Amino acid sequence: MKTENHFRREFLKKTLAMGGGFAAFASLGLAASASTPPKNEDLMSIGPRKGYSPAIGSLVSMMYYMRHTIINTVKSLSVDELDYLMDDKANSIGALVLHLGATDKFYQMNTFEGREEFTPEEDKIWGAAMRLGDEGRSQIKGKSADYYLKMIADVREETLKKLKEKDDNWLMEVDQAWSQPGNEINTYWKWFHVMEHESNHGGQMRIIRDRAKIALAG
Description:
It is built from eleven helices and no strands. It is mostly helical and 218 residues long. Helix 4 packs parallel to helix 11 and helix 7 crosses helix 8.
C-alpha cells in the first residue's frame, strides 16, 4: 500500500522535474533575476528574501515559484502551439502569457504610481493582451516562446526592482478607492492577486497545450 510519504515524494519529484531545472532559463535569454531566485535562495522555500522587507520577500519567493511553473509550461512550445485556438472564442497560450505581463504592468502602475489607465504608448504594447477577446486573437500571434517569456520577464524585473524600494507598511496599506465597507482591499492583496491570477492561467495554458499537441499532431 502506498503511503502518504510515497505520494509526497512523487509529487516533489514531478515538481522539480517539471522544467528540467534552471539551466534552460538561460538558454532562452531571459532576465535571470526575474525568472529564478539568487543561487543561495531555494525555489521551494517560501519566506523572506534578501533585499526585501519580510512580508514583501515572502511574496516575492512565491512569485518566483509561480513564474517558474509558467516558464516550464511554455518554453518548449512551437509557434503553432502558442497560437493554437481551441475554438473561435478561445485565447491562445501566447495571448495568455502576454496577458500575465499586462496584468503585472497594470498593478505596477496602480500600486507604485497610483494610475489605473495605460498611457497610449503602454496601450500599444499591453492593451490587446489585457483585453484579449477578438483583439487579442487578431493581434497576438506568430511569436516564439522566447519572445513572450522575455516580454513578461522584463516587466517582472521592474516589479522586483520597485518592490525592493517598499516596506511592509506599504504592502499592508488599504486602498480606500477600491474598498467597500466590510471589504477592505490592501496592496498585499493586489500583488497576491497577480500571483494567483498567474496560477489560474497557468492551469489553463497546460490544458490548451495538451489539446494543441493532439490537434496539431493529427
